[in-house]
Specification:
The complex is a heterodimer of chains A (159) and B (204). Chain A is built from three helices and five strands, in the order αββαβββα. With 159 residues, chain A is of the alpha+beta class. In chain A, strands 2-1-5-4-3 form a five-stranded antiparallel beta sheet, with helices on both faces. In chain A, a hairpin with a 4-residue loop joins strand 4 and strand 5. The longest helix of chain A has 24 residues. Chain B has 204 residues and is α/β, with parallel strands linked by helices. Chain B has one domain: Rossmann fold. In chain B, 30% of the residues lie in helices and 27% in strands. In chain B, strands 1, 2, 3, 4, 5, 6, 7 and 8 form an eight-stranded mixed beta sheet that branches. Chain B is globular and about 50 Å long. The chains are: A alpha+beta (159), B alpha/beta (204).
Chain lengths: 159, 204
Amino acid sequence: MATLPQLIEEDIQQLDAVLQELLEQSDATTALIIDQGGFLIAHHGDARQFDLTTIAALASGAYLANQTIANLVHETNFTSVYQQGEKFSLFVNCVDDSCLLTVIFKAHLSVGAVKYFAGPAAQRIARQLKTAQERDPASGLDLSVLNLADPTEVFKRKP
Amino acid sequence: MAIINQATKELQVKIVYYGPAMGGKTTNLVQVHDHVQTASGNKGKLVSLATSSDRTLFFDFLPIEAMSIKGFKTKFQLYTVPGQVIYNTTRQLVLRGVDGIVFVADSQFEKMAENVESFSNLDENLKTLKLNLGDIPYVLQYNKRDLPNAAPMDYMEFLLNNREVQVPSFASSAHLCEGVFETLNMITRLLLNKFISQSTPQYA
């Protein structure tokens, strides 16, 4: 299974710029970069009216489930999922082995236009992730700041 | 893999509750959701993709923000897998990107074969994802201890915790919320310790 490269602030800014441009071009509402494990990595656009954490987990699951179905019917070229709605529609596009690009857009907009702009955006995201992958993996943050004196009571039960 | 977002100072980890059908995986998440003490807005909605008879179809999902450690927000994503044998492909999908595992075993004597089979299935599914159970923090939870036909703890330890390295195990009655938080805190502790000692962490 592919793992995410180390991303620093510069990467996040680049990814954010790609998402912003995608929203301007396609007139979509929200764009998300999600890990196939279900984590939300970056997002741009309207985040108030959607539960993006849950959407990331479910969109990843839906994409992987559909990919598995595609494999079962011997479809090797599987790169996207489109959910058609009455208010909002959703388009999930594969970025690379570890990430997905998800676009939420108003239902009256053309999915063709979203797909048209999402393709190059996914390629730019993939390039940025590759750049990050090739960077020195040892650089970055010292995790010792996460040291805990006593992590036994991270979650407490209500009295 | 866990994600550390340096830009937003967030740590995200994925914990999967695994085990045989009707063992109490979903009940664990429901109890955590109902009883966890968090600041307002730090607990997400419990999402269940279940059948009409409340059997897990795809997964249950509960995001919780635990606390801030030296400026880092720690976000835990708790998942369950469907326990029924036919949903093995789904279990493999849910295991993608897993950081820690809670194996929920059913203490009833007649469920021992299912427990062992499910544990072996977990090992196989991790291998299909090129992961090794020895490299992933996991804990065992022996659930339904309140039932009269519960097998002795020693017997369950012999069946399920008999590997080279023994892992922490807990007795629980998930529907009474007994042992639920002890289990969750232990897997959290193992996970955080792993990240601290890990030399090449993942960033996002």
